């Protein structure tokens, strides 16, 4: 056996395929009869049964292998939750003020909704872990104030398709506002909203649902129905305490069960070439069928049957369930069309029920009467006795509008009787082809979301795509910025003075923003404006109660910091116009006014001066109106005076706040102006290195590409070939090189064999002129671009 898939189950039913890198993984076997091939699973699994599905084998013999499985024994206390009962863990004291939490448990369920744990306090604090649409949601609030200015509610969602009736491990680790939320080995780190860091809970924490004595905040939430094991809360083994009757379990209608009650679903997995044929009643005047399905595809054939005198089709069309019944009676044709539901290709289980008989047809979706659609068109049905589910490939005078279905079905009813899929599996009833029985191999390709920078993920059964509209980024995963990193880069492209969008960190986390670019002969100025009106009037401030003016910019502080960090020079004009309002209280007093810059540090120097020098510009130039002071305003004159100048220490810029403290006396007032931030030069752009000998090189830290990465640079050379960049791992590598005067090559190996992407230039590239190279590799494709003229891409392989 040269290739196989691995399935696992803890019951010997309801198999789950092993996933790796977001795909159902295909393991390589051996290519001869002597060698052994060893695989270590990236994600450990807890299971009792393993099943191997051969995918490829030697053509010279039969399928065969010898296998050894390595692992360790596993045991845990299990509690079965019936959807009614709740386990209450009572605290030793009535009110708990908790600064640190560690909660761990494993769960499995076939339900998409249900509260796993909940705790709340009278001050509005709460913590809730629940399933919503088969995703795991953690809601936590460490406190909001009564005025509503501090909102502590924080909600984080992880995982998908968790109603697969397989075990999932969840851990919540909280210290103050820092939380690690881990599901099946994947961790999200976040900080809770608000300013409080204690979780104030009253009396108890409940597992399996909301407590009946709780406040009416449940919002109709369902209790958890399924199994949990190894429940631990801050060192206490909840499952063990429940077994020893140390906890309140009185809400359970029956005795608490410590064995997992298995559901009896039997899923069927269809691909584009599958079908399942089931027998039904022939020559009957009523059709009554039902099933549950889940898929990502908007279209597909769910059920088809040749009636005695027509056809019956149940299809998914644009995410809606559509029924087509065609009946021919003599020379007349009768047609009934029904449609219900919307967005049913969301990966969730949906139930379909159809009842059709003489002059009556009713379609119900998800059991809701609201969704029921009735038809009373003239209709007379005589069943044909055979039903095809998931595909129909035979020739027929009236073929179905869809031919196949990719997805899963379960709970199949034919003529009001559950389909005996065990008998189908044994071959005694019906027929099937390319169907996987007792397994639903659905994958959520949008979880985790590989669309970057806010791109929206859309998926079908086989692939996902990213919609990058409105993000400022493009490419298969919205990784590539549409904008240049600075005004310098726009000037290099031949652009003149204007307002431009820039993206200082290109494909990094900072988003694009607008700046004004002024191109002069020797400098390129970049300007970021703020919202403080010129000559803002300040009165009524004192040292005890300073007036604090907030200065907000047309970009976030992180974005502005990226500009100042890379700029060669930055400056900002600041002006204080005063009448009987002292500024820095020079020469030796405590300043009345200060400003706050980058890093939230207070600064006690003014424009025209520098860090550590408590003076204004006139004090540096020694031309203050009163030579006893180092600022014009510090003379406390009754006439209007002014202190203004440029702040030029870029590590302190931009100005984010100004605190003013001397305008509360009679006749005392001041006016403040903070000009825009202006910078020129781009150290990230003008950072050329010359490689003068064959042995010249620059060494950088190890390149961590993971699932997406990009490299860009300018080069000029007279050499016909050479390696631009190379990084070698044990087997992985990445290389960019000039292979010939007209060919650039981007090659790499990320574990599934070497890949090479090349671009061919129409003119030689060793012309001693600047040329720009951009290379990107992501989970969807590899891209190589030269001079914004030549672009080549290559799709990534389907498996990782």
TrEMBL record:
The keyword Repeat applies. It is a single-pass type I membrane protein. Residues 442-479 form the EGF-like domain. One of its GO terms (cellular component) is membrane. It is found in: Membrane. The keyword Repeat applies. PROSITE patterns: EGF_3, FA58C_2, FA58C_3, FIBRINOGEN_C_2, LAM_G_DOMAIN. InterPro entries: ConA-like_dom_sf, EGF, FA58C, Fibrinogen-like_C, Fibrinogen_a/b/g_C_dom, Galactose-bd-like_sf, Laminin_G, Neurexin-related_CASP. Keywords: Disulfide bond, EGF-like domain, Membrane, Repeat, Signal, Transmembrane, Transmembrane helix. This is Contactin-associated protein-like 2. Residues 478-528 form the Fibrinogen C-terminal domain. Belongs to the neurexin family. Residues 1-72 form the F5/8 type C domain.
């Amino acid at each position: 056996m040269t290739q196989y898939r691995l399935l696992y189950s803890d019951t010997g039913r309801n198999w789950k395929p092993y996933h790796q890198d977001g795909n159902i993984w295909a393991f390589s076997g051996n290519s001869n009869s002597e060698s052994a091939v060893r695989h270590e699973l990236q994600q450990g699994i807890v299971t009792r049964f393993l099943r191997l599905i051969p995918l490829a084998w030697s053509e010279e013999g039969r399928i065969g292998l010898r296998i050894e499985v390595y692992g360790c024994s596993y045991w845990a206390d299990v509690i079965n939750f019936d959807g009614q009962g709740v386990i209450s863990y009572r605290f030793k004291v009535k009110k708990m003020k908790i600064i640190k939490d560690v909660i761990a448990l494993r769960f499995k369920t076939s339900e998409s909704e249900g509260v796993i744990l909940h705790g709340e306090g009278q001050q509005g604090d709460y913590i809730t872990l629940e399933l919503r649409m088969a995703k795991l949601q953690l809601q936590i609030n460490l406190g909001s104030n009564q005025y509503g200015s501090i909102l502590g509610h924080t909600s984080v969602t992880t995982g998908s398709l968790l109603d697969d009736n397989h075990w999932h491990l969840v851990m919540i680790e909280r210290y103050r506002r820092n939380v690690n939320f881990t599901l099946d080995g994947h961790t999200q780190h976040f900080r809770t909203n608000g300013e409080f860091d204690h979780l104030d809970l009253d009396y108890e924490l409940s597992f399996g649902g909301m407590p009946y004595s709780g406040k009416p905040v449940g919002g109709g939430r369902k209790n958890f129905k399924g199994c949990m094991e190894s429940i631990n809360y801050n060192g206490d083994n909840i499952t063990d305490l429940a077994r020893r009757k140390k906890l309140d379990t009185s809400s359970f209608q029956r005795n608490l069960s410590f064995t997992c009650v298995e559901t009896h679903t039997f899923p069927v997995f269809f691909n584009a070439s599958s079908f399942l044929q089931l027998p039904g009643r022939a020559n009957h005047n009523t059709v009554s069928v039902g099933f549950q399905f889940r898929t990502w595809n908007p279209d597909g054939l769910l059920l088809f049957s040749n009636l005695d005198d027509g056809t019956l089709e149940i299809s998914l069309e644009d995410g809606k369930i559509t029924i087509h019944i065609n009946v021919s009676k003599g020379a007349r044709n009768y047609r009934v069309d029904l449609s219900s539901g919307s967005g049913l290709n969301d990966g969730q289980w949906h139930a379909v029920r159809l009842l059709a008989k003489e002059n009556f047809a009713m379609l119900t979706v998800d059991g809701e009467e609201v969704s029921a659609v009735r038809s009373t068109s003239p209709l007379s049905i005589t069943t044909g006795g055979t039903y095809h589910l998931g595909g129909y490939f035979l020739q027929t005078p009236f073929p179905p509008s869809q031919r196949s279905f990719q997805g899963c079905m379960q709970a199949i009813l034919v003529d009001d009787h559950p389909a005996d899929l065990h008998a189908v599996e044994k071959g005694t009833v019906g027929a099937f082809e390319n169907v996987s029985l007792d397994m639903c191999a659905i994958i959520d390709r949008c979880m985790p979301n590989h669309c970057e920078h806010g791109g929206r993920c859309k998926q079908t059964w086989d692939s996902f795509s990213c919609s990058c509209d409105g993000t400022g980024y493009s490419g298969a995963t919205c990784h590539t910025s549409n904008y240049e990193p600075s005004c310098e880069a726009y000037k290099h492209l031949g652009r003149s003075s204007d307002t431009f969008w820039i993206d200082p960190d290109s494909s990094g986390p900072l988003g694009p923003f607008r700046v004004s670019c002024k191109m002069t002969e020797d400098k390129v100025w970049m300007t970021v404006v703020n919202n403080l009106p010129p000559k803002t009037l300040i009165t009524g401030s004192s040292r005890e109660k300073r007036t604090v003016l907030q200065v907000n910019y047309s970009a976030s502080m992180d974005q502005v910091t990226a500009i100042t960090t890379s700029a060669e020079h930055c400056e900002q004009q600041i002006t204080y116009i005063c009448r009987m309002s002292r500024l820095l209280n020079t020469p030796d007093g405590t300043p009345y006014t200060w400003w706050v810059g980058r890093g939230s540090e207070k600064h006690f120097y003014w424009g025209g001066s520098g860090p550590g020098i408590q003076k204004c510009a006139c004090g540096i130039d020694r031309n203050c109106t009163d030579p006893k002071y180092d600022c014009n305003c510090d003379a406390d004159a009754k006439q209007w005076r002014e202190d203004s100048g440029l702040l030029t220490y870029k590590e302190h810029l931009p100005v984010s706040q100004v605190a003013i403290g001397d305008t509360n006396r009679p006749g005392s007032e001041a006016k403040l102006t903070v000009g825009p931030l202006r910078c020129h030069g781009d150290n990230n752009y003008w950072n050329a290195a010359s490689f003068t000998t064959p042995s010249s090189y620059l060494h950088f830290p190890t390149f961590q590409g993971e699932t997406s990465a990009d490299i860009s640079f300018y080069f000029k050379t007279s050499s016909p070939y050479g390696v631009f960049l190379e990084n070698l791992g044990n087997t992985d590598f990445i290389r960019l090189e000039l292979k010939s005067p007209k060919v650039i090559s981007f090659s790499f190996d990320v574990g599934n064999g070497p890949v090479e992407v090349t671009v061919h230039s129409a003119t030689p590239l060793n012309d001693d002129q600047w040329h720009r190279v951009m290379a990107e590799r992501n989970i969807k494709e590899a891209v190589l671009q030269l001079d914004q003229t030549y672009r080549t891409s290559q799709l990534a392989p389907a498996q990782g």
